[in-house]
Design a protein that fits this description.
With 292 residues, the protein is α/β, with parallel strands linked by helices. It is built from 10 helices and 7 strands.
Length: 292
Amino acid sequence: MSSGNPSFFMEKRAVRRAFEQAAAGYETSAVLQDQVGAQLIERLDLVKLEPQWILDMGSGTGLQSRRLNRRYPRARLLALDLASNMLQQARRRKGWRQRQYFCQGDAEDLPLATASIDLLYANMSMQWCNDLDQVLREFARVLRPGGLLMFSTLGPDTLKELRQAFAAVDDQSHVSHFIDMHDIGDALVRQGYEMPVLDVEHYQLTYAAVDDLLRDLRNIGATNAAAGRARGLLTPRRLQALRQAYEGFRADGRLPATYEVVYGHAWGGGPHASPHEDGGIVFPLTRLRRRP
């Protein structure tokens, strides 16, 4: 998510293209995303919920969709992602008994009916959006009154070593910028969520070389898509300068890569949602909001 600076705005076409290219091998490299997603699902132990419909927002290849289906076998799950190749992989990998449906869409303009979702699960996807308030407004709109939003996203300490190393190379933007937990909490309050709870955990992955980190980021589609990003490939000279700068962080023979993960949940309700008269949902026609 951008922090208001236009140069930090995500170019959605670049985001989509990166994830389309990463889809086939995504699950072999998305170690942290999988761990965070699993922990986010474990946090559902703290709430009492029997959802009829689950939205897996930014579902990727369906790693967490499959877990959510196993946890709530009676629920229907809608996997929604910006990249069609991710959804194709998810469709191939789902269990034949799992009640999953697939939809390509953008979190900032969900193609879903109002008050149609009981549990909205968004693992490591919100950081690819530009307008936090718009995303949370859309989430609130599609949640049924009393529905639950569970999410994880990245905080500003994420990849701080890589950002500092690139700063020694040039003054261009190479690493995405992320929003602080307290700003996310303020946005939840602005959008009328009830009882928001947020906390932060820091994770550290280690690598033998910075090239391995850059390869991992490409393999999961996590390239810098900001409008003000540096264009083109790194020249051999600048790549060598990056390697030398990153060496200053080496400890115990390994190079660290820090991730700040913000976990949160909140309950929907208020003026955004209006319940269906009969309490039922029909998929797919009445769930999809027609676009002009």
